[in-house]
Specification:
Aminopeptidase, GNAT_dom, transferase, alpha+beta, N-acetyltransferase
Length: 160
Amino acid sequence: MIRLAKYEDLDTIMDVYEIARKYMADTGNATQWADSYPEREMLEKDIRHEQLFVYIDNDKIHGVFAFIIGPDETYSYIEDGSWKNEELYGTIHRIASDGTVKGLFGRCLDFCTQKISNLRIDTHHDNHTMQHLIETNGFERCGIIYVQDGSPRIAYQYVK
């Protein structure tokens, strides 16, 4: 089940992100979410704006992601390609799992496409696990975007 995250979920959500950061570092992607990204304050803001969701199975949070419908400033400039369209889209950000449940990305995608059929997502060039999940779930590589700190990300789009 996917539902909006609540403030009382934050400690568990932070634990999920810690597990994800460790997995990323162990698989050759130590810089994408270095230090304590995403910070608790960012997640509190996501909750306040009703943009943070959790995946629950057997009354336990196993995954988390931000989902925002509307323009994303980091996607306003793309190089080495172009977006498939400029229609209203939803963006999936900061998706993470505790690693104990299979198929979380597919469930997230199903949830998001029930809200809007045009999706965008990006990931770090060292995040091969996420690239594989994105590409095997119907997203097409569109180019390179730059996140707030100026680092590049591979950008993808999905149109249902």
